[in-house]
C-alpha cells in the first residue's frame, strides 16, 4: 500500500493543476487569488494551499493563465484550447484527434488528467516550434466514451481496487466497501464508473457484476463481451415478444408478393451454419439467358420499427461471432427459425432478380418481396466438390448427410453455370481495380468443453467466391438502383475511402525487404501492384504478415448516407442488402428499398446518418471482441504446448521487443529485448531489426526463428516467448 500512496500523491498534484484551471475557466471574465481558489476547491491544509500557489505560477509560465494584478489570476481565453477524442496507447501516451488541427495532439502520460481512452476531451496545446508535433494536456473531460470496465478485484478490509484488463486504461478503480457487492479477491468483475473527484488519484466505482474466476473459459468469454459492452443474453421482454410473433404465411401476404416457389432454389452455407439468410434461384430462359435470383430473408416483415424487438436489434446492430459461440442480433426463434431459409419450407424473402448471360452481363433487374421454397441445402464443401469434379456424386466424408449422395442434375448444372459466371464477374472487378484480399482465417477444433485441441486454416475456395460474387452483385445493384435516382433519396451505403498514402509508403518500404515492389504513382498502379503483391506472397513465410499490413493500409469501411463509393471493391455504388439476420444496416436497406418502391418520399438524412454511425461503431466493437476471442483461444492453445519449440516468422520489431508469429498456428507472441541473453540488443528502425552491440547478431522483420512459450497469460490474452535462435542456427 505504501507504493500506492506515493503514486496517489504524485497524481493528486497533477490533477490539482486541472482543478485550478477549471475554477478559472468556469468564470473566465473574473480573476481570483489563491485563497479564493482554495475556498472553491475546499482546500484548507497549508501544504496543499502552497501547492495551489506553485501551480498558479507554473500555469502562468506556460501562458495558460495571466496575472492581472498582484496575486490575482485569470484564464487566458483560448485559441490554444481544442476538443477532440483521446486515443491512449498501451504505454500511456495519449493522442487527441481533433478536426481543428491536421496533426494529432500528443499528450504525455503525466498530462492525461482524468481522461480515459476514447473520451471526448478538451485539451490545451502548448506553444510549439514550427514543424513539431503539437503537445498538450487534458484540461477537461467533456464526455465519457464508456462507463463500464472489466478488471480483477483486489479486496481489502474496508475497500477494494479493480485493476482494469484493458491496457489502454491507465488507472485502477477505488471501490468503497459498500460497493464491492460480494466480489471475492482475485475475481474478474464488471465495474461501473461513478465519479472522479479532483482530490482523488483513482475514480470511484462500484462492482456491477461478478464474471467469475480468472482463466476460466466462460469467465474470459463473458469478460470479452463485457469489455466492449456487448450483451450475451436477450432481455426477457424481447424473447417473449419474439416468441409471440405471428409466423404464419397467409394467402393475403402471398398475394402481395412475387411467387417464386416453382423456381429451382437452393442455399450454400458453412456445414455448421444454423441460419441461412440467402438463397440462389436459377432458371434457363428461351433466349439463352438465365434468370438468377438472390433471395434474402425478409427480416423486416417480422421486425417492425418501434417494437422492443427492433429496438434491441438496433442497439446490437450486428451478430458477434466468437470462437465458441455466436451472440446473435435477433433471438433464435427468428435467426434460426422463421427467418432462416431452411430447405423444403416456404419462406418470405426480399429478392434481387436478374436476367444475365454467360459473361455476367445484366439485361434486366427486378427488386421486391417474394415467397420462395428452397429445394436443397448444400455445404460449401459439397458445392466445391461439384465445381471441381463437374459431377453430382458427393462422398460421405463431405456430405451433410454423412452418406454418399447424388445431387439433382439440375442443381449440378446450375452450380457449374453460376460458378462460371461468378468467375467472369470477379475477373471484371479485378480489371476495374478491385482488391483481392484472401487472408487466411484461423479456426479451432474444440472439444466438448470448448477447449482448443487443434488449429486449422480456412481459405476461400470457388464455392465461397460463387456466393460472394452474387451477394456483391445484389448489394451493388440495389445501391445503384436508389443512388442513381434524381433527386437522390436518403439511403444507407457501405462506403470505403482510398488508402492512407503514408501507410502505403510504409508498406512499400517493408515489402522491399522481401523482394517485392509497390507502384504508388496513381490509383490504378497502386491497385495493380497491391494485387500482384498479394498473389506473390501466397505460400511464402511473409504471407500473413504482408496480408495483415496491407489490410492496415486500407481505410475502414463504414456505413453512411453520403455515398463516396467503395474503393476496395471498385464500385461506385455499394450497400449491404444480403444479411439482415446478422446486420441491422441490411434491415434498414430493406425498409428503405420497399419505401421507395412504394413511391415514398425521401426520409430524414440526419436520422439515418446517426443510425449509420451507430452501426459502424457496433461493428468495430464486435470485430474487436471477435479478435480478442481468437487471441484468447490461441493463448489457451499455446498454454498446453509450453514445452514445445515452434518455428515462427518475426512479424514486428520495436524498441521493447520482437513479435513472432508461429507458422503452424498463426499465434503471435513477444520476446522482450531483455530476455535475449546472448547480447545487449538495440532497435535499429531503418533496418527493421534489433542488433546485438557486441556480436552484431541481428533479428530482422521476416526472419524465421525458433521460439518456446515463456508465459501464456489468459487474462491479458498475451503470449511471451523465449528466443531459441534463428532457423539456420538451430537446424544446423
From TrEMBL:
It comes from the Bacteria. Residues 643-724 form the S1 motif domain. The keyword Nuclease applies. It is found in: Cytoplasm. InterPro entries: CSD2 (IPR040476), NA-bd_OB-fold (IPR012340), RNase_B_OB_dom (IPR013223), RNase_II/R (IPR001900), RNase_II/R_CS (IPR022966), RNase_II/RNase_R (IPR004476), RNase_R (IPR011805), RNR_Ribonuclease (IPR050180). It catalyses: Exonucleolytic cleavage in the 3'- to 5'-direction to yield nucleoside 5'-phosphates. Gene3D superfamilies: Nucleic acid-binding proteins. Its main location: cytoplasm. Keywords: Cytoplasm, Exonuclease, Hydrolase, Nuclease, RNA-binding. Its EC number is 3.1.13.1. NCBIfam families: 3_prime_RNase, RNase_R. 3'-5' exoribonuclease that releases 5'-nucleoside monophosphates and is involved in maturation of structured RNAs. Belongs to the RNR ribonuclease family. RNase R subfamily. This is Ribonuclease R. It comes from Nonlabens mediterrranea. The lineage of its organism: Bacteria, Pseudomonadati, Bacteroidota, Flavobacteriia, Flavobacteriales.
